[in-house]
Amino acid sequence: xxxxxxxxxxxxxxxxxxxxxxxxxxxxxxxxxxxxxxxxxxxxxxxxxxxxxxxxxxxxxxxxxxxxxxxxxxxxxxxxxxxxxxxxxxxxxxxxxxxxxxxxxxxxxxxxxxxxxxxxxxxxxxxxxxxxxxxxxxxxxxxxxxxxxxxxxxxxxxxxxxxxxxxxxxxxxxxxxxxxxxxxxxxxxxxxxxxxxxxxxxxxxxxxxxxxxxxxxxxxxxxxxxxxxxxxxxxxxxxxxxxxxxxxxxxxxxxxxxxxxxxxxxxxxxxxxxxxxxxxxxxxxxxxxxxxxxxxxxxxxxxxxxxxxxxxxxxxxxxxxxxxxxxxxxxxxxxxxxxxxxxxxxxxxxxxxxxxxxxxxxxxxxxxxxxxxxxxxxxxxxxxxxxxxxxxxxxxxxxxxxxxxxxxxxxxxxxxxxxxxxxxxxxxxxxxxxxxxxxxxxxxxxxxxxxxxxxxxxx
Length: 459
Fold this sequence. Notes:
44% of the residues lie in helices and 12% in strands. The chain is α/β, with parallel strands linked by helices. The chain has three domains: 33-133, P-loop containing nucleotide triphosphate hydrolases (Rossmann fold), CATH 3.40.50.300; 150-226; 241-458, Rossmann fold (3-Layer(aba) Sandwich).
């Protein structure tokens, strides 16, 4: 529009009407996109998604993965496209941002197709769900929200299992008939000379009947194979026995396993005091940018604070699951990457990996760089389990995990014999206490703690 305004200043009498027409059309499109309120809308969206506190001069390449994801989402919202395709839109969002996005999606005037494992979002902002792993390997659309979907999906799975059992029983019965007919046919022997006439009279009809039975059984088997019912695949279920089998204490030392106090980062963010011992279950909450991920890195010893102290009991093994996966060798097969992590031969590593229920055998030879984000997250979990840690520090561990796997992870954390500290709103039911980091970049003192965590639905 500014370019057209400059062209108006220098346009002659013949050109000016054309420029004015072009300017009017552009103004109409600008108004249709609510351009006059763009700056106000941008401030609203950036505030809602926790981006207002980012320095305007910071380069995109210097943003964290979560910040880049929120920035991409903000730009998408501001463009107001006629249709939306969203991939895990609530990953890296705090409670307030996730609630805001759900409300925005409910009023969005166009169609939206999203991939999400966020049950709160699926229960509040969708009108239907598509199961890509539906009965008999087909994609199936279900009306309604997540609660209705789970009930109908379970019923469809039961119908599929019933059909498969019936098909299997019919196939087994047909094969049994064919086997009996074959045995009977082999039992007929040629007659002795003295009984040839008698044999001919009795055997010809019986042999014909056996042949008909065999043909009928073979035809039935052919028809059953032509209209076979595939076996319902066993769902991936996280069997994290290694977590429950992990050592409950370190070999030496007394007092807390992890203790941090008066810590401050190089960026000036004051972190809350933390004590982890026994079977503590702690969830860290706070707005985006408050330093939740930084706190986990400091506690893990990966990011030393600029002030304060962090103490680990001697011999402590801490497993830190970061928000983003990092694999140095992207061309390396999944199995080899896991085997090197757990220092095991590939045969042993394959047995361990398949035993966790996170992968199928055909996944093991896939290069790490070709894995989906969800598969990479599952590989992170597998590596963590086999480290047999004393303490778990989990940064949004359920991102990109299917809802059944999230439930399995919750159960595994319930049984883990050491402390668990996590930044993940979907795991609050395992929390014994809550650390609220308050405002982003806050320099306030210690955290507010409550006896138990609360989900968004509880508030």
